[in-house]
Amino acid sequence: MKLRRLDPSEHGKTRELWEEVFPDDTKAFLDYYYYIKTRDNAIYVIEEDGEICSMLQLNPYMVRVEGQEFPSAYIIAVATRKEYRSRGYMGALLRTSLKEMYNRGLPFTFLMPAAEAIYTPYDFRYIYSQDQGTLICGKRDGELHWKSEGVLFSDAGLWDAEEMSHFFETYFADRFQVCTVRDAAYYQTMILEQQSERGGVRLMRRDGVLKGFYAYAGEEGLEIREPLFLSGYEENFRNSVEELADRMQAGQQEIPVYACPPEYADRRKPLIMARIVSLRNLLSALMVPEEECVECSFAVIDPLITENSRVWKLTSGIGETELHVGETEDSEGVLPVADFTELIFGQVTPEELAGREGVILTEHLAGEFKKIIRLSRVCFNEIV
Questions:
Q1: Confidence of residue 250 (pLDDT cuts 50, 70, 90)
Q2: CATH code matching the domain that covers 2-111, chosen among 3.30.590.20, 3.60.15.10, 3.40.630.30, 3.10.310.20
Q3: Which of 91, 201, 226, 313 has the smallest CB count inside 10 Å?
Q4: Residue 150 confidence (pLDDT) above 90
């Protein structure tokens, strides 16, 4: 067995394994992925007899945490040929890639799991649930109602990416404590990705000014992804989708909408799991209300990234909003890294943690944790 990180010139060698393990992905999508995404990603493989039999890919993203930007990585294409499974290859790839990410100072890494149980033993936990809904389209009162006075619909080109980025930053970025950085390059990649899935990004403009947009795909019927539009343009969004469905001859009356506004949602699906990588860097990004004073210490147990297994000391004075992160020898409590992940990302309260196996939490420590602003407003709708 040989585990190594491929040179970028070798990335194309993994396509055969992808096609074998993920046969539902189309040629058009893989052409896009291996031309665009593998230019700057990292691919770790295990080889047997000179053949790639297992792989893990890390797609780089810049993420914003409470206004600070950090590098992060989306783990994808974790795959092993059938005859080589149950040999611990996935675990070996994860441990190696996590060590590399720690050395680079990534606060955390994230993924969309095929099954939660695969990644919980490696201390990944859900941090983001996606609102999903269904848009009922079609004929109303016997006629199509997709014409919107003064609002024009069109597909985005790569030249629109800068405007899309500005739109997100102006109207939506402050809704989230944690999200990917949506710069022009991000939206150019989104446009190309959606086009590879027989879709695109649909713009809504009034008097030439952008009022909203959404991604769509048409491989297996029309799907709408992450609609972002200004208040008052709800009906225009619906009309745009109806026009699109008619143009694509989708023949659908019920169109799934992923990452939809909460008022459209009829379900909420746990979607993205994360794992802390550099605990120090993540702690340094947390914030405290300026009227609060924080002083506490606690031990974190991390069996995979042992550098995180420290007794951490957090302090913040009145009038400050940032946390000062240090180390000490005196601990008020003990938290496994997976439990601490759920706490920091707002999935559980200190009270809910207190009764868990392996958790030691004094009343004072629980109270100090309550003062820290947890990262509960997360947005990760990336597919690859």
A1: low
A2: 3.40.630.30
A3: 91
A4: no
